[in-house]
Amino acid sequence: MEVQEFGKQNSRKIMLLPGNMMNWRQFEAVIPLLEKQYHVIAVSTDGYDDTGKTTFTTAEAMAEKLEQYIKEEQDGAIDLVLGESMGGATAGMLFHRQKVKVGAMILSGPQYMNLGMFSWVLTAIVPRSQYNLTKKIQSVDKLPWMLRLYTRGDDQKLLNQFQYVAKNISLATLENATKEALRLYPVIDTFAPDPEAKVAIWYGSNEPNMKKAMQKLKRAYPNAQDHPFVGYGHGDIIGHPDVIWQGTSSPL
After folding, report:
1. Dist. CA 80–CA 16, nearest whole Å
2. In the prediction, which pLDDT does 205 show?
């Protein structure tokens, strides 16, 4: 795990957790805006910290590690956690467990991934495809069709995201992340509804499978704010702070 801090002079603390394959630099575009008002804690989780010496295992295990960090380094509390894509699984566990004080949560692009009896296709194909992709991606022409289908985003924006792909990602990390993506909503289904939870859900209007995701998230968090970004695909909005912060609802 790697942690970078910005705007430490500010009192309100925001923790940023990147998506699958990405490290903390996925938030480089938005950090300069946030650090003017917030103490920003940008995290590269285990498996994505460029060292090749850690492995992502489960969202619970990562939440436990972050809880220890928050206790030791942040006086046991943060005001908000933002989980981008797969980072939402860890953010969700951190927020749900409340072993440390987490005031509010933003889930950005929390797609519903479960394909029922066909989920084995994801676990069998996607991690290996992602692993190969981290080694080979060079141009829009080489973006695989499955990635385009998953994101429904702009090809050039998608290619731009690959500058933030972590180094030395292991196949085991990607396999575990895929399993956690499939497990995310079955876990959320076990949560008792919490109408008091301060939660916002951000997503691109072009993202697939968000209708099912919203149904399940709204059951768990009945008063969650939702904000679709019109014309954007999965992961597109993180590189556009001007779009994110103009008229966007926040649970803080």
Report:
1. 9
2. 86
41: helix, strand or coil: strand
Structure tokens at 133: 């992709």
Let me know if 3 is exposed, middle or buried by CB neighbors in 10 A (0-12, 13-18, 19+).
middle
Strand partners, 174: none
Q: What is the mean pLDDT of the chain?
A: 86
Q: Write down the pLDDT at residue 46.
A: 97
DSSP H or E stretch at residue 199: strand 199-204
CA-based angle 68:69:74, to the nearest 5? Answer: 115
Q: For residues 109 and 85, is the Cβ–Cβ distance under 8 A?
A: yes
* pLDDT-flagged residues of the chain (< 70): 115-119, 121, 134-162, 245-250, 252
Report whether 250 contacts 103 (CB < 8 A).
Answer: no
Strands 77-84 and 101-108: parallel
**26: which 2 tokens?**
């996925």
3-state secondary structure of 152: coil
Q: What is the pTM of this model?
A: 0.86
Based on its alpha-carbon atoms, the radius of gyration of the chain, rounded to whole angstroms, reads 17
Cβ atoms < 10 Å from Cβ of 176: 20
Q: What is the pLDDT of residues 154-195, one digit of tens each?
A: 555 655 666 778 888 999 999 999 999 989 999 999 999 999
What b-and-e string marks burial along 47-73, b requiring 16 or more CB atoms within 10 Å of the CB? bbbeeeebebbbbbbbbebbbebbeee
* pLDDT value, residue 129: 76
CA proximity to 15, closest of 78, 104, 109, 98: 78
